Amino acid sequence: VQLVESGGGLVKPGGSLRLSCAASGFTFSMSAMSWWRQAPGKEREWITSITSSGGNAEYADSVKGRFTDSRDNGKMTMYLQMDRLKPEDTAVYLCMTTWGGGVWGRGTQVTVSS
User: Of 35, 49, 74, 110, whose Cβ has the fewest other Cβ atoms within 10 Å?
Assistant: First the structure.
């Protein structure tokens, strides 16, 4: 089971980024997935989860209305569209599946700064 995040980078406040989480080694289409983030000196924070079909997603209040979680089961990839980014969104973003007891990717760095 492997998860690989990509798409992070440096963006100015108010800008956008789209993260990807490429999955392999398990039945992706049967697994709910989630995005988390961890800022320096802070605990890991859940930000969104999406059902196996992609038909429903839930969001933390801190990102609701700005971030959109989606997935393409044919490509075994989950996406996180991040709009109206703020400096406080700066963190390492990680995807996670509960398959096999829980597997995490290594993360991708997002930095929001002018």
Answer: 74
Both tokens of 97, joined, read 């599946």
Structure-block tokens of residue 90: 């700066």
Dihedral over alpha carbons 52, 54, 59, 63 (to 10 degrees): 130
* Angle 2-27-20 from CA coordinates, rounded to 5°: 50
- Round to whole Å and give the CA distance between 62 and 77: 24
Distance CA 110, CA 8 (A): 5
Parallel/antiparallel/unpaired status of strands 108-112 and 9-11: parallel
Contact of 7 with 19, CB cutoff 8 Å: yes
Q: Which two tokens stand for residue 45?
A: 């924070």
CB atoms within 10 A of CB 19: 23
d(CA 81, CA 44): 19
